[in-house]
Amino acid sequence: MEKITKDTIIGDVVKNNPELSSIFVKHGLSCIGCAFASQETIEQGSNSHELNLDNLLKDLNKKLENNDEKEEEDDEE
């Protein structure tokens, strides 16, 4: 998957990578299944919940990168 940015829709991230839900919750964005999540960007969600956008994006992309690396290792076996 492409890198997650501030303009990525929250619902798209959760739909395509459900394992990242825990990162949103860890950062205080627990309404990832609400109606707004399907239309709201990560930046909008972070602003409305007064979260640190940079830290959230860093953690989301780190987890996503680790998942991609694991999939590549599994494919090599």
Radius of gyration: 13 Å
SSE order: HHHH
For this entry, what is the oligomeric state of its chains? Answer: single chain
Largest sheet: none
Summarize the structure in words.
This protein has 77 residues and is mainly α. The chain has one domain: SP0561-like. The protein contains four helices and no strands. The chain has helices spanning 10-16, 21-26, 42-48, 53-76. The protein starts with 9 loop residues before the first helix and ends with a helix. The mean pLDDT is 89.
Summarize the structure.
It contains four helices and no strands. The chain is an all-alpha fold. It has one domain: SP0561-like.
Write the layout of secondary structure elements.
Elements: H1 10-16, H2 21-26, H3 42-48, H4 53-76
From the structure above, extract its key features.
mainly alpha, 4 helices, single chain, 77 residues, SP0561-like
